[in-house]
């Protein structure tokens, strides 16, 4: 019996010795195949979808990010192109190279002719830079300072007449004029309405007069940008449905889906469908929990040095100099093609027929594959 057990044990050892290298070789081959396959997966795929479908098959820790087209795995967009009656897009002066006449754009907003410190409309851009574009081109008129806005928008003044003259003259080269005044004082609400009326008279009925207005989710008492009062004076109203969160707010989306739905819902109740354009952002924002770039009083400077264990200073011709490394936490929200498609779908399902984008040159270029002008 003992002899038989020894024979069986010896046979098992011989079998193990025979097959172990084969099993080990197969396991090694499978392990070695995993990394190259993941790397190949991250690199393959056509340029149009940037390898989105393939990238989902590879774990993030297996991707060679130095060779991957984006900094993250983009989700697959399975939707057909979304159709809109009008698609507006802003182009800034000196950023014209980012625009292509092949983009599905019906209306191009050339940004901008700005009111200068003398109350003059200066540096009016030439729309000839967009030769070959078959859509309409609108000159955007801006005025950023509140005091300057007040004095240049006061009827009867030399500056007021001069700006109207300049807008009338410039309109001859454009299909329309858009007013984007975002810093109007409360006492100038009436003057703003008069300004729009006078611009309409100057440019005539054959030019499109549009206005860009901040987002609202409800009516606000004594609102400078009262949708109901402004709507009868213009042909289009672009709602700037972005900056829900801004540089001075807590971190959050520039335009969250729920907030945009509320903005569109309110706008639809006061602005006719044929005039309403919902604006979408191409940009994102980031926040950090602590920023050291600032002016500091002496006691604050000492506190910061202690908090960061920075106790050694150098002298630059007598002036104290210190340097230290510090960690900071960053949060960022941004829009890519996927989120822009989702927001556009939401607007489309709400009956919105016109959308606009701020601004061309900031976008995930894949978005243009999913938009279409309705014929």
Summarize this structure as a short list of keywords or feature phrases.
375 residues, alpha/beta, two-stranded parallel sheet, 9 helices, 15 strands, 33% helix, disordered N terminus
Can you describe this structure?
By secondary structure, this protein is α/β, with parallel strands linked by helices. The protein has nine helices and 15 strands. The protein has helices spanning 2-43, 52-55, 146-152, 158-171, 189-203, 227-230, 257-270, 298-307, 337-349; strands at residues 82-84, 86-92, 107-115, 121-122, 136-142, 176-180, 208-214, 236-240, 276-281, 285-288, 314-316, 319-321, 330-333, 354-358, 371-373. The strands form four sheets. An eight-stranded parallel beta barrel has the order 2-3-5-6-7-8-9-14, surrounded by five helices. A two-stranded parallel sheet has the order 1-15. It has a two-stranded antiparallel ribbon with strand order 10-13. Helix 4 packs across helix 5 and helix 7 runs parallel beside helix 9 (337-349). The protein starts with a helix and ends with a strand. The model is unreliable at 1-56 (pLDDT under 50).
Level of helix content?
A: 25-40%
Distance between the termini: 92 Å
Beta-strand fraction estimate: 15-25%
| Uncertain runs | 1-56
Q: Tell me, briefly, the overall form.
A: globular
Radius of gyration: 30 Å
Order of helix and strand elements from N to C terminus: HHEEEEEHHEHEHEHEEHEEEHEE
* Largest sheet, strands/sense/barrel: 8 strands, parallel, barrel
Order of strands in the sheet with most strands: 2-3-5-6-7-8-9-14
């Amino acid at each position: 019996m003992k002899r038989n057990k020894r024979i069986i044990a010896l046979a098992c050892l011989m079998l193990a010795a025979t097959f172990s290298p084969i099993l080990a070789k197969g396991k090694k081959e499978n392990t070695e195949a995993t990394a190259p396959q993941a790397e190949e997966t991250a690199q393959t795929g056509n340029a149009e979808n940037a390898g989105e479908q393939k990238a989902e098959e590879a774990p993030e820790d297996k991707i060679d990010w130095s060779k991957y087209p984006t900094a993250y795995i983009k989700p697959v967009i399975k939707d057909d192109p979304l159709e809109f009656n009008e698609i507006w897009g802003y182009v800034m002066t000196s950023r014209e190279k980012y625009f292509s006449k092949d983009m599905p754009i019906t209306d191009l907003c050339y940004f901008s002719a700005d009111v200068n410190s003398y109350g003059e409309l200066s540096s009016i851009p030439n729309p000839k830079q967009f030769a070959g574009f078959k859509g309409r081109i609108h000159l955007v008129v801006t005025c950023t300072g509140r005091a300057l806005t007040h004095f240049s928008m006061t009827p009867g003044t030399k500056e007021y007449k001069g700006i109207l003259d300049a807008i009338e003259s410039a309109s001859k080269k454009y299909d329309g004029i858009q007013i984007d005044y975002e810093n109007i004082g409360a006492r100038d609400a009436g003057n703003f309405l008069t300004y729009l009326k006078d611009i309409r008279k100057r440019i005539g009925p054959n030019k499109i007069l549009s206005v860009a207005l901040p987002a609202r989710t409800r009516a606000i008492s004594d609102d400078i940008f009262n949708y109901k009062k402004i709507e009868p004076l213009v042909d289009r109203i672009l709602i700037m449905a972005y900056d829900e969160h801004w540089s001075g707010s807590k971190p959050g989306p520039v335009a969250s889906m729920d907030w945009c739905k509320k903005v569109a819902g309110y706008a639809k109740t006061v602005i006719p469908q044929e005039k309403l354009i919902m604006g979408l952002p191409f940009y994102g924002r980031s926040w950090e929990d602590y920023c050291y770039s600032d002016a500091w009083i002496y006691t604050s400077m000492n506190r910061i040095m202690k908090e960061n264990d920075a106790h050694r200073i150098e002298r630059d011709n007598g002036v104290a100099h210190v340097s230290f490394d510090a960690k900071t936490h960053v949060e960022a929200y941004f829009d890519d093609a996927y989120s822009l498609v989702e927001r556009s779908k939401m607007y489309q399902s709400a009956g919105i027929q016109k959308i606009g984008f701020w601004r061309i040159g900031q976008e995930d270029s894949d978005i243009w594959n999913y938009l279409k002008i309705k014929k």
